[in-house]
C-alpha cells in the first residue's frame, strides 16, 4: 500500500542521513587526530599521544552509539505516528474498515487495474436506523453498523471495495454483469445482514434502500459516481415500490428542476403565484352543483402554469405543503367572505390537508384563527384527509378528527381505496364523508364482483351516516353506475375540469336554487 511505500522511503532517508552524519563525524575525527599528532610532535609530548587518542576514540564510539539509538527511537516513533495518522485518515472508527478517503483511492485503482471489468456504484441506506438507535441504544446501533460492514467485507471480491460514508449509509463498488444479477446480489446481502440475532435483543427485520449507478465513463470521479447512486436511492424512497433503483439521467434533471422550484417556492407564496382552482361537485339525484374541491396551480413566471403533480409531491417531501395548505384554506375563506358580502349563497368547499399536519399540535388552532378572521361558518368547509393518513397513525388521526368535528368542520376521508382499505376502518373513524378514489371503481365496474364491492362500500357508508363522493369520473357509464348504486356526489372531467374562481362562479351560481334546496334539507 502507499503507506508502506512511504514508510520504507522515510527509513531509507533516515539511514542515508545517519551515514552522512557518521561520515562528517569521521572526517572531523580524522582531522582532529591528525592535528593532535602534529601538535604533540611540536611540543615533544608523544608519550601522551596514545592515551589521548584512545580516549578520543572511545568518546567518539560512545557518541556514535548514542546518536544511533536516538535515530532508531525517532524512526520507531515516526513509524508509530504515521500508523496512527494513516488509521485516522483512512479507517472508519465505527466499522474499523476503510472510510471514504480510502474508498476513493481504491475505486480509482481498481477501475484502472481491471479495465475489462464493468462496474456499478451502489449506495445503501438502512431504513429507519435512527428508530433502531432509539429502541436499542447507540451502542447496539454501532455494533449493527460493524456487523453490516463485516458482512459486506466477507461477500465482496478482490476486484471490489466498499466503505461507510456516514451514519447508516454505505457505498460499494461492485462488478456489474446485468441489472438482475446486481439485484440478486443485493438481495443476498440483505438476507445475510438480517442474520443479526446476536446483536438485536429481539426479532427485528432491517429494511434497506439502494441506488445503483452503472459506471459508463471510467474517468469520472468517485464522488460523482456516489452522488448519482444517491440520487437513485432517494428516488426509490419516494416511490416505495422497490428498494433498489437504478440511476438514469432524467432523474438528475428532475432533481435539478425540483431544486430550482425549492429556491422559488417561498417567494411564490409571498407574491401569490399559487392560484386556487375549483372543481365542481355534482349531486347525482338532481344533477346540479352542490359544492367544489379547492385545488392549486402554480402560475410560474417562467415555466407557466404548473399542475399540482409537478410540485405537490416534492412539497410533501420537504414539508412546504403544510404552508401551501393553509394558503389555500385562507384563500377559500376569503372567497366565501366575498360571496357573503356580495349576497351570494356560499357552498361547501373541500380542502385537502397533508398528513404532515397531524403531528402539529396547533393545526386545528390555526384553522380556527383563520375562520374567525373571515367570520366564516366551519360547516361550509370540508377538511379532506387521505386514507393513508388514518392507516399510518390511527390514534393521532382520531384525536385530530374529534377536534375538527367539535369545531364544526365536515371531515372527509379522501382517496378511499387507493391503499389497503379496510371496512373496519370506516367503523373506527367517525368521518362525515367518504370520498372514493377513481382507481377503486374504474377498473371494477365492468365486472360483477367489482360492482358488488363498490356497492357494498357505499351501502355501508350510508348505514354509518356518511355521504359518498366519487372523484375522477370521466365516462358517462361510470356516472350511470354510481347513480344506480346510490352514490351521492361525483366530480370529474365528465362534468367539469378544475377552473379559475371566476369561471366557477359563472357556472355554479346559475344553479344556486339547487344548492339552496340541498342546504335547507
Automatic annotation (TrEMBL):
Pfam families, alphabetically?
EAL (PF00563), GGDEF (PF00990)
The alphabetical list of record keywords is: Membrane, Transmembrane, Transmembrane helix
| Name of the protein this chain belongs to | Diguanylate cyclase (GGDEF) domain-containing protein
Record the organism: Hydrogenoanaerobacterium saccharovorans
Residue span(s) of domain EAL = 258-512
Q: List, for all copies, the residue spans of the domain called GGDEF.
A: 117-249
Show the SUPFAM superfamilies listed in the entry: EAL domain-like (SSF141868), Nucleotide cyclase (SSF55073)
What GO MF terms are annotated? Answer: cyclic-guanylate-specific phosphodiesterase activity
**Listed transmembrane segments:** 12-36, 56-76
Q: Which Gene3D superfamilies match?
A: 3.30.70.270, EAL domain
